Amino acid sequence: MSDGGGPTAQIARPGGEEPPRSVKWSWGEKPPQLYLLCALAFLSAPVGLIAPDNFSVLLLTIGGLALMTNPVSGSGPIRRQRYLYPLVALLIWVGLSLFWSTGDRQAIDGFLKLAIFTGFGVLLVTFARELREKDKRLLGRWLIPTVWAYCALFLFDRLADNPLTGLLKADADSALPGTALLLLSWPAAGFLFHTDKPVQALVLLMTAGLVQAGANAQAIVLAWLVGGMAAGLAAVLPRITAGLLGSVSVIAIFAAPVLAAQSGLIQRLMPGALALSDAISNRPLLGLGLGGGLNAAAGPSGTLPHQGSAILQIWLDLGIVGAAILGALVTMLAFAGWTGPPAPRAARLGLLAAAFVLAYFGHGAWQTWWVATLFITGAFAAALPDRLRNR
């Protein structure tokens, strides 16, 4: 005789107890992480423009609040992100490099910062991935006007001779806010494409690149162009785009020391590239250890090439082993980003291509603001709506 309980009653345990249900990563109607990610999107423009080197503080603040509001259990959502394996391997190799580094206490502090940023960054990316479709759309509605405002403020700042960036940073480097603006524009455009606003998405991407055209922005403009080509190809040929992006990135990583030593064009695009290449040749297998290569790469005046290539910095500190792990990371990120509808995959692969070019030509590997910016932007890219995955 049926008791009207339906399928649930048929699987109930003796004594009327229902079987336990998994509640891991179940956040209810409106998870607190959604509001924290919206706050992160809102704060990205003023921090990125006025104090871009404080992106690390922004990451730690939002990541810490996210951890306190939802101390999660279970590693399933993290294990599904297979690109985290080479990321963890890279972090482990950085830690091991401390044994042969001459960076002393500063190197240890750098490793601890990198580990903390990685932990909070992975947490935010995981939270963003696990949001529901409508929550992701809400996040997009916060991010899009933020990036538009960022473009407007950036243009005003450049035309008016940097009055905004001078508020908190007297010696503001235009490459720092420009990098953050370019990276944030990709997930914002992805949200616009997803909501069937392709014209606005293209205008936003064009604006984010054109407002930066000019002297001392060659690397940013190059990254903008390469990212656009990768995104366009990914929209129609995602698997081929992922393969090309992975293979070209690996070749470029392994060829970086040779190109830096031989090519005058590369040396103009990579400040300090020749000094870094010479230091790499002294110990190419294991590198000089985290922080150990800075003194070796300093010129006769003792000036360090802080704005040198991130790829060369990894070669210098971690050797060919670190370069190989980085190549695996970029390749796995490329193949993780090609799935899904055209809009999110185009935005993700465009972002990855642009970020790689910026890392190759523009910035040092262990600057905390750069690492934090990558994780913040990666969280927004992970939150792009993807109906094939979240049904």
TrEMBL record:
Residues 1-23 are annotated as: Disordered. The chain crosses the membrane at residues 34-51, 57-76, 83-101, 107-127, 139-156, 201-234, 240-261, 314-339, 346-362. It comes from the Bacteria. Keywords: Membrane, Transmembrane, Transmembrane helix. The keyword Nucleus does not apply. This is O-antigen ligase domain-containing protein. It comes from Hwanghaeella grinnelliae.
